[in-house]
Every structure is written in C-alpha cells, then in structure tokens.
Amino acid sequence: MNETRRPPAPHPAERARTIAARGGRAALLPSGGTENRITPVLHHVHPNGDATIVLPDAHPLVVAARGTEVTAMLELADQAPVQLREPVRGLLWITGWLRTLAPDEAREASIEVAEARPDPRLLDVGHGASALRLSPASLVVADAEGTTSLRPDLFAQAEPDPFAAHEDHWLRHLELSHRDVVGLLAKHLPDDLKGGHVRPLGLDRFGLRLRVEMVDEDHDVRIAFSRPVGTAQELAVELRRLMGCPFLAQRR
User: Fold this and answer.
1) Cβ-Cβ contacts under 8 Å for 62 (sequence gap 6 or more)
2) CA 75 from chain center: how many Å?
3) Which of 161, 155, 176, 166 is nearest to 225 (CA)?
4) Of 141, 143, 159, 224, whose CB count within 10 A is highest?
5) Model pTM?
6) How far apart are CA 71 and CA 6, in angstroms?
7) How far apart are CA 102 and CA 109, in angstroms?
8) What are the structural domain ranges in the chain?
9) What is the mean pLDDT of each run of 10 residues along the chain (252 residues)?
C-alpha cells in the first residue's frame, strides 16, 4: 500500500508564534461570540501568549472589563503578502480573560509593547485610549497544515520562524520581479495542478508554499527543502536546488 507522506512543516506552536509575531489583522470577540467583532486600535501578542489590546476609553468593553475579568477571544488573520483571491492563509485564536489595566499597569504595558514594536498609537494610552490585557486559557492555530489546539505553555516555549520578519518582502519580490523563478519552482507541483496560476504563498525554515489558483478552487502546496534552514545563505542554496541549479546549489 502506498502512503502519501506529508512534507515536513513547522510545529503548530511555531506556526502560531509566527502568526502572532507578524501582527496581522485582528478582531476582538467578547464572550467568544462572532456577532460583535471589535477592531482594536492596536494589538500585540507577547511571547508568553498574553495580548495587550488598545481600545478607546469610551468603548463599552473597556468599562465592562474594568475591575473585573470578562471572557473574550482575539482572532489574528495571517494574510499573504501578494494579492490573492483568498488572501488569508492562516488564523490564530487566543481565548482567555480580558481586563482593563489600571493607569500604572497601562503605562508599563505600553513601554513593553514599544520595546518590541514601536507604534505612535501607544502614545494615546492614558490620553483617550485604554490598554487591556488578555490572559490566554487556550490557543488554536488553523492553516493549510491543519487545525491544532495549543496550551499557552507550548506557545510560550516555541519561537517564530527565523524568516518571519523578511518573508513579506521576499515573496513580493518573487511575485513581481521573478516570475521565471516561480515557473521553475512550479515543476515540483502535482501534474493535476500544473495548469493553474501559481503564486508564492509562504516561506519558512522547512520549505516554500505555493498557491495554485485553478478555475474552480485554490490549492496550497508545500515544497520541502532538503533540510531545515536558518540563514539567508542556506535559504538561497535550497531555492537554487529546487530551481534545478545543482552547480549553484553547491556554492555558499
């Protein structure tokens, strides 16, 4: 019996940390519902899974969570850096307890967020905006690799992908300036997908992901590297290997 072996991919906790580090579009859902989606002024997920969320002072949720805790879910959407029919390539849901921070706590939280991700909107905290803290009870990551529930400690032990900070720029450059390279990479696709429109979708230390837009539906395909990579030089070697340049692949 022939078994289809899935290409190696980052651990779900690593994928969750990467989505959190990218800081994509966010929605806050009080009490885990879907009818009242709130767009935060600013959000930041800390390495331990806690999230700092900024809302206007007058928002009802700021009042409801002052001096107490309310249940809520933060949804983060990981969007592809190129224009696609279906741009969301992954979702992270953090469910837990939300509370409005006291003024001194809010100042400390703003400083902590600013050290990781400077943003002028943090200056509004204490001047028309309030900071809230979401403490996680559970996390769920969903993408083409599958849907997995995570404990906060597993999330905290993981690290974002080493290419997370540069992935958007590299993929946009590949899409706009190197369609010939995309064509060479497409030779690794299954035969039944080779007639579709191939787009660069994602990049991580285990491989490259391509989106194949067919007439009726889209397909995400992972193309594995020969080994995990951690530097730009190692990445270049693996990309050349996938393109079919064995001589260039040997050059460091």
Assistant:
1) 55, 56, 100, 130, 132
2) 11
3) 161
4) 141
5) 0.91
6) 37
7) 10
8) 12-157, 167-249
9) 72 98 94 76 97 97 96 96 94 98 97 96 97 98 96 97 95 92 92 91 96 93 95 93 65 43
Tokens representing 81 are 């850096």
Q: Which of 4, 1, 12, 7 is nearest to 158 (CA)?
A: 12
Report the greatest alpha carbon distance in the chain: 66
Report yes or no: 32 and 49 within 8 Å, Cβ to Cβ.
no
Cα dihedral: 153, 133, 168, 248 (round 10)? -30
Cβ–Cβ < 8 Å for 209, 186: no
Q: How many whole angstroms separate alpha carbon 51 and alpha carbon 59?
A: 18
Whether the Cβ atoms of residue 242 and residue 209 lie closer than 8 Å to each other: no
Tally Cβ neighbours within 10 Å of residue 182: 16
How far, CA to CA in Å, does 25 sit from each of 1, 44, 80, 108?
44, 11, 11, 24
Which helix (H) or strand (E) segment is 71 a member of?
strand 70-79
Task: Check: CB of residue 219 under 8 Å from CB of residue 193.
Answer: yes
Residue 4: the pLDDT is 57
CATH number of 167-249: 3.20.180.10
Tell me the pairing of strands 129-143 and 88-100. antiparallel
Query: CA–CA separation, 231 vs 73, rounded Å?
Result: 35
β-bridge partners, 144: none
Please identify which residue in the block is written with the tokens 């989505």. 19
pLDDT value at residue 247 = 45
* Amino acid 2: pLDDT: 45
